[in-house]
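For the sake of transparency, this paper describes our internal protein records without simplification. The tokens are whole numbers drawn from a learned vocabulary of local backbone shapes. One such record is reproduced below, unchanged from the form in which we store it.

. . .
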Amino acid sequence: MWIRPVWATIIVTTLVLTMASAPAHAEKRVALVIGNTAYQHTRILPNPRNDAAAIGKVLEDIGFKVTVKTDQGYGDMRRVIRDFGQSANGADIAVIHFAGHGLELAGENYLLPVDAKVIRDGDLEYETVTLTSVLSSVRGATKLRLVILDACRNNPLGDRMALSAGATRAVTRGLARIEPSGDVLVAYSAKHGTLAQDGTGPLSPYAEALVKHLATPGVDIRIVLGRVRDAVLAATERRQEPYIYGTLGGAMAMLVPGPSVDGVPRPPRRSSANRRPSLQRTSDRQQFQVHSRTSPCRQIFLWHPMCCA
């Protein structure tokens, strides 16, 4: 009569192990997406508003709580980044995507709100948002901090800006190289010192590649961004090369957990030679008894009620 409790114990143990393998709680994922198109004092950009809508939808579809903002003035843009920093504090993953104008001066990178005028370099502090402050807003995330910038556009404001004595500007345009500290990645749509293209469609080439690859399940974000780079190089005939700055640790960092796909190695399958023969459904009792007598674990099998009946 003790046979049934033994099998009940086995079943309960299996259920407990299965439940233990599930995540203890759902990850908290937050994202801020900004697209500035309608610039008042420099060249209007055709794509960022569309880019923001498309990328915001992709992130929302893969489980992020997304805030999408477009055509942000100085006060609004600073405020939304500050508020996002509070949401990112304690989150597992925090992502910021900015599409719009940016410029570099003396190694510092600045993102431009739509009302930025920037007549002289001293105006940058009061009319733009520094990349440093954007990076600060994702610091509170615990697993992955990601900032994506499609801001390496041709910006006439940088050409007209009066420089103070001793100030220097990079010979080429675009954003400056950075070395972010901690487990953070910063993805540029174009390598430092080079320009990104607007493209001819509703989305920029970089945004098109992001929309295609960001939601790939089971792939590390570093590989995902590598595929984005390859797609942009192909779409622009190698005139635009996206670049990634920063490092992560050795653990996998995925935006979309899931089974490995697209050439990412899978664990090897056990060969059929290493598998113990299974019992057929026909004549279960007889086959089970034969198998139990020939098995090295026959004492365990003999406990089964089919064998002991």
The longest strand covers residues 29-35. The chain has a mean pLDDT of 81. The two ends are 12 Å apart (CA to CA). DSSP finds eleven helices and nine strands in the chain.
